């Protein structure tokens, strides 16, 4: 890859990262919110390196250095010492494998059409609800329905020996993941990230009593705990499921992931 192409790639990469991290909140599809300052700093550094490279290589939009014409003696000396060969040798070093052009594709994707956040395709390949152990549960909000994060619902179903969910109507938000069986149920899902989308884990609650919207649709589900599965509420074998009363479509949140496993929305 020629050196001036490297400069353009640095500038475009810096601009793309700056666009998704500073000028918008698209970065939340890929990393957790706390990493935003590091993305902005990286983008600024890439832009600075791109400008330096552009000036060095004399790109059309950069100031070109003033090259004076060599005198005849200098030209002759250059020929005697193989100046032409040195020029060719240097030119060869400025090129590289053509496959390097592929590096432009992810950069253009971020600038023109940023890939969406992970969804049901990822969640369908995980079955564990990774919820931390909770020593003590605070009382549910007095509101009816009580707003609750998926992690909070799962933790209370499996760990709350006081059965705080018994008889309570809750409101939870997530996206739709189809069930692999033919039970007529589906999953309300959220993905949890510790650092970025690469380490995501799924939180899934089986939904009974409502037809499944299309996969990846974001919905707000109002309902009560669904008994079944042979386990009592507040035990590890309790069914992580809800009997839906209402299912309403909602816009995808700005941050589609949950950081770690909060128990409240």
From TrEMBL:
Top-level taxonomic group: Bacteria
Protein name (database record): TIGR03943 family protein
Keyword Transmembrane helix belongs to the record: yes
UniProt keywords, alphabetically: Membrane, Transmembrane, Transmembrane helix
InterPro entries cross-referenced by the UniProt entry: DUF1980 (IPR015402), DUF1980_C (IPR048447)
Source species: Streptomyces ficellus
Bias type Basic and acidic residues, positions: 78-94
Keyword Transmembrane helix carried by entry: yes
The organism's taxonomic lineage, starting at the top: Bacteria, Bacillati, Actinomycetota, Actinomycetes, Kitasatosporales
Region (Disordered), start-end ranges: 62-94
Transmembrane feature ranges: 35-55, 99-118
Domain DUF1980: 166-257
């Amino acid at each position: 890859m020629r050196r001036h192409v490297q400069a353009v790639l640095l500038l475009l990469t810096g601009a793309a990262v700056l666009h998704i991290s500073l000028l918008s909140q698209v970065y939340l599809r890929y990393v957790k919110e706390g990493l935003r300052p590091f993305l902005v700093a990286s983008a600024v550094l890439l832009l600075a390196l791109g400008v330096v490279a552009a000036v060095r290589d004399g790109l059309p939009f950069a100031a070109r250095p003033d090259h004076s014409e060599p005198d005849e003696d200098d030209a002759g000396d250059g020929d005697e010492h193989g100046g032409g060969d040195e020029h060719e040798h240097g030119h060869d070093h400025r090129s590289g494998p053509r496959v390097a052009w592929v590096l432009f594709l992810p950069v253009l994707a971020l600038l023109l059409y940023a890939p969406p956040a992970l969804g049901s395709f990822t969640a369908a390949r995980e079955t564990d609800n990774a919820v931390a152990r909770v020593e003590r549960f605070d009382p549910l909000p007095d509101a009816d329905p009580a707003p609750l994060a998926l992690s909070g619902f799962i933790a209370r179903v499996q760990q709350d020996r006081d059965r705080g969910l018994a008889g309570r109507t809750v409101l939870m938000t997530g996206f739709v993941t189809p069930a692999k069986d033919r039970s007529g149920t589906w999953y309300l899902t959220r993905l949890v990230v510790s650092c970025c989308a690469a380490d995501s884990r799924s939180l899934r609650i089986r939904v009974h009593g409502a037809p499944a919207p299309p996969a990846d649709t974001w919905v707000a589900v109002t309902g009560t705990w669904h008994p079944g599965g042979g386990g009592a509420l507040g035990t590890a074998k309790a069914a992580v499921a809800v009997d839906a009363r209402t299912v309403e479509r909602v816009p995808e949140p700005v941050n589609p992931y949950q950081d770690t496993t909060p128990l409240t929305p």
